[in-house]
User: Fold this.
Amino acid sequence: MLATASPGKWDLLRSSGLTDDEIAHSREPGFEERFRAAAGGVDVVLNSLTGDAITASLRLLSEGGRFVELGHNELLGRDDVPEDVTYLHFNVMEVGPERIQRAFAALLPLLVDGTLTRGPLTRYPIEEAPEAFQVMQRGHNVGKAVLELSTRFRPGGTVLVTGAMGRLGALVARHLVLRHGVENLLLVSRRGRRPRAPTNSSPSSPVSGRTCVSRPVTSPTSSNCGCFSTTLRSPPSCTRRPCSTTPPSLV
Assistant:
């Protein structure tokens, strides 16, 4: 196995068992000569590089080799690929949920028993999301970047719940009240779907000894109407029939 990466990531590759002869800088075209000296050629290329690096990777392929493109920006045509090379563009969205499920089912036991280990994680508070994206844009991240949501809510503040008129929205609202002690909810819904369970007509709904003031905000039933209002009625400019303003049950 051969791998390209920026020097800051080489220690991770070494810890995976690769030697220095099997590692090269992904931004330097010289990786072609380095890998040819180490292995002569390769049978499969998993590519996420761009520009001249794609051409260099194609030249490294042995006869009958396969080039698997993981990116989406620089796809090659049939005329750009040697006749004895199979070119494949991998798009995870085309794999299908059933096949992905089978893959996860096969991988999970290997992660549990330690045969496989996950890559490193770098955690960022949600407030530092711009910094996290900048690190990824520069290609400086090693492993996965994870945004963590704060579970602290400002006392006396209001929590906005979108899609709140459905069953899932009601469960989220209930969780916020029971688990986090939220006292004010602003329930927003585009469809205004009535919940199946009976609801309390009072805006203050008791939940296991807690009281939460919920204020529903709805829009017309038509999915073509994007109007929202901070009252229980549609804006005057909207002529479509208002939908239900009944808040979801928190009980």
Notes: The helical segments are 10-15, 31-39, 52-60, 97-112, 129-137, 167-180.
